[in-house]
Amino acid sequence: MPEASSAVLRAAARRWSTHVLSAVALATLAACGGGGGGGNGLPFLPAPAPAPAPAPAPAPAPAPEPPPEPTPTTLSLSLLGRYETGIFEKSAAEIPAFDPGSRRAFVVNAQQGVLDVLDLSDPAAPRHVGTLQPHAIRAGAEANSVAVSHGIVAVAVQAPVKTDPGFVAFYRASDLTLLGHVEVGALPDMLTFTPDGKTVLVANEGEPGDDYQVDPEGSVSVIDAADPTRPTARTADFRAWNGRESELRAQGVRIFGPDASAAQDIEPEYIALSADGATAWATLQENNALAKIDVASATVTAILPLGFKDHGVDGNGLDASDTDGRIDIRTWPGLRGLFLPDAIASYSAGGKTYLVTANEGDSRPWGEDDDAYWAGDAGKGFVEEFRVKHLVHNSGFDRRAGEDLPPQLRALAAGAVLNPDVFGYCGATWDLAAGTASSGDCREDDRLGRLSVTWTLGYQQNPDGSPRLQHLNGKDVLVYDALYAFGGRSFSIRDEDGRLVWDSGDQFEKKLAELLPDAFNSDHAATAFDDRSDNKGPEPEGVAVGRMGDKTFAFIGLERIGGVMVYDVTDPAAPVYVTYLNSRDFSVADPGASAEDLKRAGDLGPEGLAFVPASQSPNGKPLLIVGHEVSGTTAVYEITPAY
Question: Helix (H, G, I), strand (E, B), or coil: what is residue 163?
Answer without folding.
Answer: coil
